[in-house]
Amino acid sequence: MNLKNIEDLIGISRYLTVTLGIGGRIRCFPEDFLVEEILTDGSKASLKQAYNPSPEGWGRYLLCLLIKKDTDTIYALERIAKELGIMSSMIRAAGIKDARALTAQFISVGMVTPEKVLSLNIKGLKIVPVRFEKEALSSRNIYGNSFRVTIRDIRISLSYIEAQIKAILNEIYKLGGIPNFFGHQRFGTVRPITHLVGRYIIKGDVEKADLTNPAESVEFSNSSYIPPWIV
Q1: Is 170 helix (H, G, I), strand (E, B) or coil?
Q2: First to last CA, the chain
Q3: Nearest-CA neighbor of 35 among 90, 104, 83, 99?
Q4: What is the DSSP letter of 187?
């Protein structure tokens, strides 16, 4: 299934702008997609944050910086819990970060010492103690994320790239911004069928939800199609 088929499947059928893009490839390597989390108190999870030898603050939760590379967030948290010998429910995160990327985010770990955290040695993960907190992290603590994306193999001149970017930004400015739309990951990055699975679960057909595959997505290829469970 190519990109066009996938976008038709999930309802992305047109571009907001008419200016041609610049081409190229993204996410060739995890380091091509950098993510740094920002909390509501202004704290930023930096990919370059230095080691803190003596975390300050007071509370039962140790706020830590988690840097992960090419690793799923849920898997990372479960591995950390296993290595620490605690229940996974003792570790909280404010948000889920991309797997195929190099990301920095905060996690809170309950009833653990900084020394224990620093003793961890898990491939693809780096955990650094930051400070102690009275409460565990939750989605209410996240303000947003800072992204840096590298585009490779662009086969046009720098002057043309700059001209196209300016033209696209000008279009967006005139339109008043861009829609707060959904992206591919909301439907599954490998098999974009979570909306189909959800449909069968809502209908109470768990067996069909379990057997759903991309071939069943033909009905969604038309962007004008309105799912019967919405109307």
Answers
A1: helix
A2: 28
A3: 104
A4: G
Domains, in order of start, for the chain: 1-23+154-231 (no CATH), 30-146 (3.30.70.3160)
Q: Tokens for 50?
A: 């230095």
Cα Rg, the chain, nearest whole Å? 21
73 alpha carbon, distance to own chain's centre: 9
Any idea which residues carry the catalytic annotation? 98
Q: How far apart are CA 88 and CA 74, in angstroms?
A: 10
CA distance 108 to 215: 41
Q: From the CB of residue 134, how many other CB atoms can be counted at a distance below 10 Å?
A: 9
Residue 100 corresponds to which amino acid?
Answer: R
Tens digits of residue pLDDT in 185-222: 778 766 788 888 999 999 999 888 888 865 544 444 44
Long-range contacts of 217-226 (CB under 8 A, 24+ apart): 217/9, 217/192, 217/193, 220/8, 220/9, 220/10, 220/11, 220/195, 220/196, 221/5, 221/8, 221/9, 222/8, 223/8, 223/11, 223/13, 223/14
Structure pTM?
0.79
